[in-house]
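Quick question, first post here. What does this chain look like in 3D?
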Amino acid sequence: MLGRRDEHAPGGSTGVAQAAALLRSGRLNVVLTGAGISTESGLPDFRSKDGLWARMDPARIASLSAFRRDPQAFYAFYTNRLEALAHAAPNAGHRALARLEALGMVQVVVTQNVDGLHQRAGSRRVVEVHGNLREARCAGCGTIGPIEEMGAVLRAGALPRCGRCGGLRRPNVVLFEELLPASAYEQAEAACRECGVLLVVGSSLEVHPVAGLPVLAVERGARLIIVNREETACDALADLVLRGEAGTVLPEIVRAAEGAAALPAG
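> Answer (accepted):
Ran it through. Tokens below.
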């Protein structure tokens, strides 16, 4: 068995095999994903040197106060995001996580992403702690409907009003200055309290409260694996750190897991 927080690998066959072994041994395995898993699908991340927030101030376009102060700028930003998402497809990293679920080696995917690519790849139990871009929500009465309706109104040059109360409709995502949806976060926290292995993929682990979930999992005795291109705030807590792209590293873990499963016992 690997020692606690003493195996840090830059990738390669040894680190991949260790990751597969940990996942095979976990009683309940949870994955926590961030924007880094979707960059290979053509969607930009937020906090890297080339991310969205390096080019624009989120407080001016993606906050609750921005939505109220300047809805036209807010809608322009999200219209661009929706157009980018329309051309995006799940990548090898998303498909690998769905395969690990099919193998019984992942039970829950907790994601900070709002793009829905995990579900499109085949993952079935996905907890979206930052909401999603499939739905639009009325800022007045809370009515939820397909985001395509909101997009169609915007493309026609009008503001998307709720047919029930007349309030403005907005993407059903968590904006800056808003709290996370309580039910989703409670599910994520419960999964991390109970998991045997937490696999973090493509997250800088800088945004709270989600950034505290790996700490919670480790405190409860979980093994921690981190797959990311750059250092994260929780690397020192991890049993295993694999540097690289999710679309490269995760399929290698799947192959190692499938190979181990095919070996005869004894």
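Residues 246-262 form the longest helix (17 residues).
Residues 47 and 106 are 27 Å apart (CA to CA).
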